[in-house]
Amino acid sequence: MTQILITGGAGFIGSHTCLVLLEAGHQLVVLDNFANSSPEALKRVARLAGPAAAGRLQVIEGDIRDPADLERAFAAGVAAGAPIQAVIHFAGLKAVGESVAEPLRYWDVNVTGSQQLLAAMVKHGCRTLVFSSSATLYGYPDSVPIPEAAPIRPINPYGHTKAAVERMLADLVASEAGWRIASLRYFNPVGAHPSGCIGEDPNGIPNNLFPFISQVAVGRREQVQVFGGDWPTPDGTGVRDYIHVMDLAEGHLAALEAMLAGGDQLLTLNLGSGQGHSVLEVIEAFAAACGHPIPYVMASRREGDAAITVADPAEAQRQLGWQTRRSLKDICCDGWLWQSSNPNGYG
Ligand code: NAD
Ligand code: WQD
After folding, report:
1. Cystine design at 91: which of 8, 84, 246, 341 (Cβ 3.0–4.6 Å)?
2. What 3-state DSSP class applies to 164?
3. In this predicted model, what pLDDT tens digit does every residue of 203-215 receive, in sequence order?
4. Residues 294-311 as b or e (16 or more Cβ within 10 Å = b)
5. In the predicted model, is pLDDT for residue 347 greater than 90?
6. pLDDT digits (tens, 9 = 90+) for 53-96
7. 3-190+242-273+310-324 belongs to which CATH class?
8. Would you list the DSSP string of 187-248?
9. What span, in angstroms and rounded, lies between the C-alpha atoms of 60 and 67?
């Protein structure tokens, strides 16, 4: 059993990962300021994990930018009988458009926040980290599927902050021995836990396709706008690599265990399925899952979009023995169960 600090553990990916880690027997301290999440998510994680496992989950409301809050999180591990041995760092801001409007807030939370976290880790002698990076780093890729060696060319402030943190991690690993870091570049995380009890609950109008479709399906919104029907793709709509959030959560467990078992390293891995699906394919798959058509209209292209982004996931398979197991159908069925059982999210 290992004591792990999970920053941003109440969020979409964090909550599903907390459940997988509890089920694997780990002890968790979650540090989250609930800027984009609800404490209810972790209450449900505790319920799903069962009473025995729930005793291994501590939740601390606090901000990764505040050294006093980080101290409280590290102290909580010690108080529970096991100092924190590893960190999974999800906390951050992730909305591309908002990052264009408020770049300083994004640099503050994503970059300064990561720097404060790393300083606290050094102070407490903890040098094992799994970091939430993003495929957004690749910008407009030269070719697909995209390997990890593809050029890093972010095209928005959000992407620049992720690139900056990856740079900071590389500098740290080069500066002293002892670091074991996995930087995971997620493609398009979607879906929900198959119980329908936890899932994605965005604030306001969803920026992303999948939660938008879900809200149309449940009657919260009228229709999906399809951003472009003239892309150079088989049906003219954008193609993405959608990864079930439970596959992603299991990828974190695999990366964490590899870091805990291995020597000094900086491992950078794509987490994706390697399969591309178009906007229209996702709309159709969701309609099949919910049992009624999803109204949509064709609209103009969204600024900053690429035609196709799909992961080359071979390195994650080689390094971690991990690959996605769930299909687009699973994604839509689980996403629909979550949305239909919780039409207003966590409420
Ligand atoms: P999310 O917003 O649901 O979760 C982020 C969590 O961090 C939230 O619970 C939020 O309250 C918390 N948080 C934000 N600022 C904080 C702060 N200053 N201190 C403490 N907690 C703070 O997002 P998510 O989809 O679960 O994403 C998790 C991570 O994965 C993020 O770093 C994101 O950039 C990255 N990522 C997400 C996607 C995606 O499409 N969802 C893709 C690639 C990478
Ligand atoms: C998917 C496809 C759209 C909404 C974003 C971030 C990226 C990463 C994952 C964090 C595209 C189309 C969308 C809609 C549509 N997040 N679309 N109508 O842009 O691939 O990636 O989330 O790291 O950084 O940029 O995801 O879900 O917004 O779009 O037609 O209402 O759906 O044009 O082809 P994207 P998305």
Report:
1. 8
2. helix
3. 999 999 999 999 9
4. bebeeeeeeeeeebbbbb
5. no
6. 999 999 999 999 999 999 999 999 999 999 999 999 999 999 99
7. alpha beta
8. -EEE---TTSSS----SSS-SSHHHHHHHHHTTSSS-EEEE-S-SSSTTSS-EE-EEEHHHH
9. 13
Clarify whether 158 is annotated catalytic: yes
Q: Which of 106, 138, 158, 242 is catalytic?
A: 158
- Enter the tokens of residue 206: 């969803």
Radius of gyration of the chain (CA): 19
Q: What is the CB < 6 Å shell around ligand 2?
A: 94, 96, 134, 136, 188, 207-209, 212, 224-227, 238, 240, 279, 302, 305
Kindly tell me the burial class for residue 80, based on how many C-beta atoms sit within 10 Å of its own C-beta (0-12, 13-18, 19 or more).
middle
Report the percent of the chain where pLDDT is more than 90. 99
Indicate the top mutation candidate among 188, 215, 328 to test ligand 2's pocket, ranked by most ligand atoms within 8 A of CB. 188
- Token pair recorded at residue 332: 């839509």
Tens of pLDDT, residue by residue over 101-132, are 999 999 999 999 999 999 999 999 999 999 99
Say if CB 170 and CB 162 are below 8 A apart.
Answer: no
Instruction: Indicate yes or no: pTM above 0.90.
Output: yes
Where is 12: in which H helix or E strand? helix 12-23
